[in-house]
Design brief:
With 184 residues, the protein is an alpha+beta fold. The chain is built from three helices and nine strands; from the N terminus they run αβββββββββαα. The chain has two domains: 58 residues; 106 residues, Sandwich (Immunoglobulin-like).
């Protein structure tokens, strides 16, 4: 009695390498922290809520209260029914400095927010406050390239191990089926 075994389908190694490379690229993109910071506010003019109106916002960063300004940018936006507006700091029109060069992990920064309802560049102070530690912790944890690279490598290695185990498991189950056929 001659037993004919079907040839095992082979998966080219190139497909695995390509798949792992694509996962690595995708994971490294997911591991990056966006270069902006969301800022929501309510616009008040002389104590009254400014509703449904175009407003220009200017954000200034300083290393100390009343100190030298290291970064300034403006945003053109509109308030809603409650006078709320939002902006993503780092994505506005820069007037001074570069948002990416502000190191929130090592320094204390104050943010000054101003508004202009006329569109003429007549800005009025809305608030002046210190950036709190949540942003600094987030920058420290997720803004470092070394952390992102190590995390990505660990994830890719684990995914590679899982794929290997799954493929090995398929081969073992095929062999078990072939052995059962042989016994019959």
């Amino acid at each position: 009695m001659t037993l004919k075994m079907k040839p095992e389908k082979r998966f080219p190694l190139g497909k695995y390498i390509l798949g792992i490379a694509l996962m690595f690229l995708q994971l490294s993109a997911l591991g990056r922290n966006p270069a902006g910071m969301s800022y929501d506010l309510q616009v008040l003019d002389s104590g009254h809520v400014v509703t449904n109106q175009a407003v220009s916002l200017r954000f200034s960063f300083a290393s100390q209260l009343g100190g030298d300004i290291v970064f300034v940018e403006t945003h053109a936006t509109k308030t809603d029914l409650q006078g709320n507006a939002s902006a993503i700091l780092g994505e506005g029109k820069p007037e001074k400095g570069n948002f990416d060069q502000i190191d929130l992990a090592t320094g204390t920064y104050f943010i000054q927010v101003e508004y202009d309802l006329s569109g003429q560049g007549n800005y009025h102070l809305l608030s002046n406050s210190r950036l709190l530690s949540v942003t600094r912790v987030q920058k420290w944890l997720f803004g470092r390239e070394k952390f992102n690279t190590v995390l990505t490598i660990i994830i890719v290695i684990w995914l590679g191990i899982i794929v290997y185990l799954l493929m090995t498991g398929r081969r073992i189950s095929r062999l078990e089926k072939d052995l059962k056929k042989m016994k019959q």
